[in-house]
């Protein structure tokens, strides 16, 4: 049966994330037909009329706006989806919450901890449903890792290790600002810490609980770049690479690395968790596979199992193809939409909420402060 209740979306931002989210809205009804709600692509907003009109035609939005405040003021929009550069997240979210709109915000929640705190306060005051697109949680193999850990199979956890490696900024001629807003600290808030490690931290907090304290180093390898807006050679304020280690509240040790200077790696997100009885590991380049080692297996047969996460019993998979046929990056966004729609039905929060994402922001802040001061930072000091 087709979903009867509408969730009218107003999406702001027509870049890479605007496309991933739009694809999620379009696909969800075909594969999750039993949901009570269905997204309606009511309006899309971007400053450039020609660009936003093309985007609306391509993705099937019913109307366009060039002013996000006008979009938020519309009565025919239920939820605002923020896909803008980070510098706009807080201002838009505060206005959307004040207008009583639900909010789906692209990660990271904000550029800074104070902005993130203001966003949490705003959605709590307004009582509006909210979520943050930390999409990797919703890949079936990552959700399966969560189920295995929660079942206690690993026993006491000793180690959590994660990497997010890219190589797209190893080019001194790459500009910052404008189209390359991720390179501009004023727009992004930070470099790999907020852009890539935030994903690793979100997954880690979800799988392994809170982080108590951190010790970090960051590096900016190329110190000056031309700024797209001013045309001037300007100091680069973002971290190109960040390494940190930490203590989790459960007593385990964490080791994290992210860089955009690892030649040969485009988006190598990996994690490995070592417990008393068993270990698991996962790699975004082979995203339908979860590796599992259990020391309790008979010694003659003991070894890493390579679980191809495509079975109908695996998370989300009953909605897709037959066993053996895998999913891709885009499905994590379809799943996020499905879970958000489900949360409307059940009236449960859709995690990660703004409040959950605030914990990630606190760890990111502790990491950046630790690197700046060359000292351990207790994440508890960032609690309001
Ligand atoms: C950066 O290159 C980026 O696109 C991030 O912004 C995304 O969050 C990450 O999933 C892939 O890499």
UniProtKB/TrEMBL annotation:
- Could you tell me which residue ranges the Gfo/Idh/MocA-like oxidoreductase N-terminal domain spans? 7-132
The GFO/IDH/MocA-like oxidoreductase domain sits at 144-281
Which InterPro entries does the entry mention?
Gfo/Idh/MocA-like_OxRdtase_N (IPR000683), Gfo/Idh/MocA_oxidrdct_glycsds (IPR050463), GFO_IDH_MocA-like_dom (IPR055170), NAD(P)-bd_dom_sf (IPR036291)
This protein's UniProt keywords: Oxidoreductase
Q: What Gene Ontology terms describe what this protein does at the molecular function level?
A: nucleotide binding; oxidoreductase activity
The UniProt record lists the keyword Oxidoreductase? yes
The protein's superkingdom reads: Bacteria
- What is the name attached to this protein's record? Oxidoreductase
Q: What is the lineage of its organism?
A: Bacteria, Pseudomonadati, Bacteroidota, Cytophagia, Cytophagales
């Amino acid at each position: 049966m087709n979903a009867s209740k509408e969730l009218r979306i107003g999406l702001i931002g027509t870049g890479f994330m605007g496309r991933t989210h739009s694809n999620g809205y379009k696909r969800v009804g075909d594969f999750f037909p039993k949901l009570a709600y269905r997204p309606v692509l009511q309006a899309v907003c971007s400053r450039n009329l020609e660009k936003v009109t093309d985007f609306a035609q391509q993705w099937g939005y019913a109307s366009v706006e060039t002013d996000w405040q006008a979009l938020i003021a519309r009565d025919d929009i239920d939820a605002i989806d923020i896909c803008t550069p980070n510098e706009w997240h807080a201002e838009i979210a505060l206005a959307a919450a004040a207008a009583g709109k639900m909010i789906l915000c692209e990660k990271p929640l904000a550029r800074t901890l104070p902005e993130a705190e203001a966003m949490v306060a705003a959605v709590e005051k307004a009582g509006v449903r909210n979520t943050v697109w930390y999409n990797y949680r919703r890949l079936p193999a990552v959700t399966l890792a969560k189920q295995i850990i929660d079942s206690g199979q690993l026993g006491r956890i000793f180690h959590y290790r994660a990497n997010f490696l890219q190589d797209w900024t190893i080019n001194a001629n790459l500009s910052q600002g404008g189209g390359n807003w991720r390179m501009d600290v004023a727009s992004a808030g930070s470099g790999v810490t907020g852009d890539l490690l935030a994903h690793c931290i979100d997954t880690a907090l979800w799988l392994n609980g809170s982080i108590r304290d951190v010790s970090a180093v960051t590096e900016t390898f190329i110190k000056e770049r031309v700024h797209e807006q001013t045309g001037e050679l300007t100091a680069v304020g973002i971290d190109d690479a960040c390494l940190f280690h930490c203590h989790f509240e459960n007593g385990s040790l964490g080791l994290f690395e992210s860089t955009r200077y690892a030649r040969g790696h485009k988006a190598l997100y990996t994690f490995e968790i070592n417990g008393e009885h068993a270990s698991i590991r996962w790699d975004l380049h082979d995203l339908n596979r979860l590796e599992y080692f259990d020391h309790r297996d008979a010694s003659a047969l003991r070894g890493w199992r390579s679980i191809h996460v495509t079975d109908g019993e695996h998370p989300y998979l009953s909605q897709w193809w037959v066993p053996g046929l895998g999913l891709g990056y885009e499905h994590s966004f379809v799943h996020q939409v499905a879970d958000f729609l489900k949360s409307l039905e059940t009236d449960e929060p859709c995690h990660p909420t703004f409040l959950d994402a605030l914990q990630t922001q606190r760890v990111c802040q502790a990491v950046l402060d630790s690197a700046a001061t060359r000292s351990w930072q207790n994440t508890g000091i960032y609690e309001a």
